[in-house]
């Protein structure tokens, strides 16, 4: 340490000032050039981790809800006819009042035609059929009638 002090004391005041200014400038460059970006990146990564953790929690809750809904779904029981399941699914649905023509093809397949039906209500009902009653939508043909209304030809299979 003494040789460094001796070296420093041998410098002129002007040279010491220049060296101190240079050291201060280097410290600032290191602080703002290296430390600040690293600290900022660490903050961004922490925010990303928190967002991913929140997403994970949401997904776990959604998975629990999906499992609960699966247990509520009716089993594919051949004792319950497809027409009975369709009638049950239409209870308390807006589609119950809609004009429709139901044509059974066989025990496992039905064709339903709606002359004019609300598009959103139709999609909601089809999702209900698939999720709760394990009824597959084989084919859907839609023709727009008016704003929000469609003519629908749907083939459902169990």
If you had to describe this structure to a student in words, what would you say it looks like?
- With about 160 residues, the chain is α+β, with helices and mostly antiparallel strands.
- The chain has 4 helices and 4 strands; from the N terminus they run αααββαββ.
- It has a 4-stranded antiparallel beta sheet with strand order 1-2-4-3, covered by helices on one side.
- α3 packs across α4.
Beta strands, count: 4
Kindly name the structural category.
alpha+beta
Strand content: 15-25%
Helix content: 55-70%
* Count of helical stretches: 4
* N-to-C CA distance: 88 Å
**What's the pLDDT, averaged over the residues?**
87
**What's the overall geometry?**
rod-shaped
Order of helices and strands: HHHEEHEE
Rg calc: 36 Å
Specify the biggest β-sheet. Answer: 4 strands, antiparallel
| Uncertain stretches | none
* Strand arrangement in the largest pleated sheet: 1-2-4-3
Keywords:
4 helices, rod-shaped, 158 residues, 4 strands, four-stranded antiparallel sheet, single chain, 23% strand, alpha+beta
Concise summary:
This protein has helices at residues 2-10, 13-72, 82-90, 119-133; strands at 100-106, 109-118, 136-146, 149-157. The chain is of the alpha+beta class.
List the helices and strands and how they pair.
Elements: H1 2-10, H2 13-72, H3 82-90, E1 100-106, E2 109-118, H4 119-133, E3 136-146, E4 149-157
Antiparallel strand pairs: 1-2, 2-4, 3-4
Helix pairs in contact: 3-4
């Amino acid at each position: 340490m003494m040789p460094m002090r001796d070296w420093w004391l041998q410098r002129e005041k002007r040279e010491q000032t220049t060296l101190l200014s240079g050291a201060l400038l280097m410290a600032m460059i290191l602080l703002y050039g290296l430390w600040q970006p690293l600290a900022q990146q660490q903050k961004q990564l922490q925010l990303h981790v928190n967002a991913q953790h929140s997403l994970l929690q949401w997904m776990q809750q959604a998975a629990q809800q999906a499992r609960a809904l699966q247990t509520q779904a009716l089993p594919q029981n051949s004792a319950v006819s497809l027409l009975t399941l369709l009638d049950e699914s239409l209870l308390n649905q807006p589609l119950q009042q809609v004009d429709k023509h139901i044509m059974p093809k066989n025990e496992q397949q039905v064709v339903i035609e709606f002359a004019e039906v609300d598009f959103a209500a139709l999609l909601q009902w089809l999702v209900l059929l698939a999720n709760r009653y394990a009824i597959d939508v084989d084919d859907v043909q839609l023709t727009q009638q008016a704003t929000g209304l469609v003519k629908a030809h749907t083939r459902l299979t169990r």
